[in-house]
Structure formats: C-alpha cells, structure tokens
Amino acid sequence: VQLLDSEEVNGTVCDVVLVWIDDTDDRWLKMYFDPSTNLIVRTQQKGDNPFSQTPGMLHTDYSGIQKVDGVMAPFASTTYFDGEKIIGTEVTALEINPSIDDSVFERPAS
Q1: pTM score, two decimals?
Q2: Is residue 91 within 8 Å of residue 76, measured between CB atoms?
C-alpha cells in the first residue's frame, strides 16, 4: 500500500492510495478518497473491456452516498474503459446484514 500524490476527480482534489495486488503481474488498484469526507469517490485499475475483452484502463466513479444502518454506501456508480462510459448502475434499495432464512441454503431434493 502506498500513498500517492493528490489528484483531481470531478473537481475535488483527492487523496490517492495505491494497493498492489500482485506486483509480479502488474496488478494494482488506485483508490481516490475525498479528504473532506474520507469517502471513496473513484477506483482505477488495468483490466479488460467486459464486452470486447481488449486490455486497457478501467475506472469507476461512485456517487449518491447514503448512510444505511450506520454504513456509508454509494447508491450509484459509473464505469469507464479508456475514458468511455461502459456501465452505469444505480442502487434503489440496500439492506445491511438482513435476516436470511436457513432454508435458502438447503440443497434441493434430488
């Protein structure tokens, strides 16, 4: 883990942290944090385009942060491949640690 120089993301100068996942394979993740809230606003990594499988640079911007059961969570994200928007997501409802009936995990009858 390494603290990098600050970078601007959507008009906010962010603290940037680099996490090496596997330095022998050049796998890493950059995380951008808003210093006024300490919340993540972007992640960036090398990766393949999920549609064409071509290698390039992926980044995801997070927004719509809401507090749910004491946990701050982004309710929207937009993912870009080499600067072009490829995926947008929006969360409409979020439950933290909901109760799940044990029967959900039972194997079906043969």
Answers
A1: 0.86
A2: yes
